[in-house]
Design goal:
alpha/beta, Rossmann fold, L-fucose Isomerase, Chain A, domain 2, 2 domains, 6-stranded antiparallel β-barrel, globular
């Protein structure tokens, strides 16, 4: 290929795009140098917007304007250095005829790799052919070799030998039988997941068509965030005060200030706890086994972040919530599984995981994280799994006493609020991702552990990513960095703890069998049964 067209995609939020723009310019320069060094020419597909002070595609409308000017047969590179809303450009990539290459920088602070994983998953769901590369400096042999391959052939092939189709004969009979029994029960009895508005932050890949869900025995209750706002405003502040005292009594540290624009305030947290109570009451009203709050569109202009509520809902031990008349406690002794950012693939996962972990007598608290970044530590490659909300305190070192609450970044959360921030405790985990490909639901499952890193290394990784958010030091068994990036079909990864390696293996066996029993095609990744 002699002439490559380069575009980029960004956030919907102006402040986020402006902050990331200098880094994007440097990433584009490095990528341009790499293409030029291979003997090809490169042109930017559109000019930066001087009035908006950045050069990202920042809406679906703007994306359509850009793609109308592009040659549909040209080799197209999508270069990413930050979170991006995939639907801004998905329409153009679906109809593009030339070879497509998605590119990401390898950074925790400006995580193009997170945006790339979401875009790749969205392209996979849409049935669009693409290749993908990632790099810290765009000079390493892995990147340069892959780039040359794409320029010469229009394809980049990655090693995915760590993936194999699920084979029930390799699992224990007891695990398979229990999974099949639980799968049959779900399909027969059916269940409801509450969806507070679909399609968060351009995550087309996270919207599961109803007919695919129905085959699993799962049905959506479509709820409105406006109803959640209304219900939040109905909650008495005294109830929120009692919830806050409950958290403080258990050692949660709140970093309160007085400046609403830049600091966490008591009023913000009380609003978050009112939302926590309201969400549980609506879940009870509609008989929802799990719920998902979109937040980033709509509620962000009305309420502080939903993240504190999400983490509490995912924990078995949490501030008690009563019905509106006070006559009964809702979901007593249970978590109320929450799928962050209305990721409906995670909704399936949290229903399955919660049921199995309860059945096996394990802590059912589970959550998704962003595959945020990673770096070697000693002999291990340790990923930074990090999410703004939904991480349950039982995952943290010290539980509630190891949790703290800082103000969410003003760039993303204008009205403030906190998340439950903590360091995930060392232990054995099962990780997974459900995704849509070829019009079918599929699932990747694997094993791993959470590493215990020195305090200074945890601090370094936190400072290199999002300091306000909960962090997990994850090691994936038998899966390298590049294998994970090549295969994983989401910016999200689902995790749940087991108390031992034996129990984790058992839980994975049951989970694989249950997913298979409800019609999801299962793949085992890395060193797992």
């Amino acid at each position: 290929m002699k002439n490559v067209v380069m575009i980029t995609n960004g956030d919907l939020r102006l402040d986020a795009n402006r902050k990331a723009w200098p880094v994007q310019q440097e990433v584009e320069r490095r990528f341009t140098d790499a293409v030029t060094a291979c003997g090809s020419e490169i042109t930017r597909g559109f000019e930066p917007d001087t009035s908006r002070q950045h050069g990202f595609i920042d809406s679906q409308h703007r994306g359509m304007e850009v793609f109308r000017t592009l040659d549909r047969d040209a080799p197209l590179a999508v270069v990413l250095s930050t979170w991006q809303y995939s639907h801004h450009i998905l329409h153009g990539l679906i109809t593009h005829r030339g070879p497509i290459l998605t590119i990401a920088n390898w950074s925790g602070q400006y995580p193009g790799l997170v945006g790339l994983l979401n875009l790749n998953a969205s392209l996979t769901k849409a049935g669009v052919s693409y290749s993908s590369l990632w790099s810290e400096d765009f000079e390493d042999a892995f990147f340069r070799s892959g780039l040359r391959s794409w320029l010469e052939t229009g394809r980049v092939e990655h090693d995915t030998s760590h993936v194999r189709p699920y084979d029930s004969t390799r699992a224990s009979r007891d695990g398979v039988e229990l999974g099949r029994e639980m799968g049959a029960a779900l399909r027969e009895e059916k269940t409801i997941v509450g969806v507070f508005d679909e399609g968060c932050m351009g995550m087309y890949n996270a919207i599961v068509p109803d007919e695919l869900l129905h085959g699993c025995g799962i049905f959506k209750e479509r709820l409105s965030q406006s109803a959640l706002y209304y219900e939040t405003e109905r909650v008495d502040v005294g109830e929120a005060e009692r919830a806050l005292h409950w958290l403080e009594d258990r050692g949660v540290r709140f970093y309160f200030g007085t400046d609403e624009a830049t600091e966490l305030t008591r009023g913000q947290v009380l609003q978050q706890l009112r939302l926590y109570i309201a969400a549980a009451r609506i879940a009870d009203d509609f008989g929802c086994e799990a719920i998902g709050i979109q937040y980033q569109q709509g509620l962000k202009d009305l309420l502080p972040a939903s993240d504190l509520a999400e983490g509490l809902l995912n924990n078995v031990e949490r501030p008690p919530i009563t019905s509106r008349d006070g006559s009964r406690e809702l979901f007593s002794g249970e978590s109320i599984p929450h799928f962050n950012e209305v990721d409906e693939c995670a909704a399936i996962d949290t229903v399955i995981t919660t049921r199995i972990w309860r059945r096996l007598g394990l802590d059912p608290a589970n959550t998704l994280h962003d595959v945020r970044w990673g770096a070697p530590h000693g002999d291990e490659y340790v990923w930074v799994f990090e999410i703004s909300g939904a991480a349950p305190p039982s995952h943290f070192v010290g539980g509630f006493s190891g949790a703290s609450c800082m103000r969410q970044p003003p760039m993303y959360f204008r009205l403030g609020g906190a998340t439950l921030r903590g360091v995930s405790r060392p232990g054995q985990i099962v990780w997974s991702r459900i995704f849509v490909e070829d019009g079918r639901l599929k699932a990747d499952l694997g094993r791993g552990h959470v590493a215990a890193l020195p305090d200074h290394e945890t601090e370094r990784r936190w400072r290199a990513t999002s300091y306000e958010w909960p962090i997990m030091h994850a090691v994936l068994h038998g899966v390298s960095r590049d294998q994970m990036m090549a295969r994983h079909k989401s910016n999200h990864v689902h995790v749940a703890y087991a108390s031992s390696a034996i129990q984790a293996d058992q839980a994975l066996e049951v989970k694989a069998a249950m997913l298979d029993a409800i019609g999801i095609e299962v793949f085992i990744c890395g060193n797992a049964t």
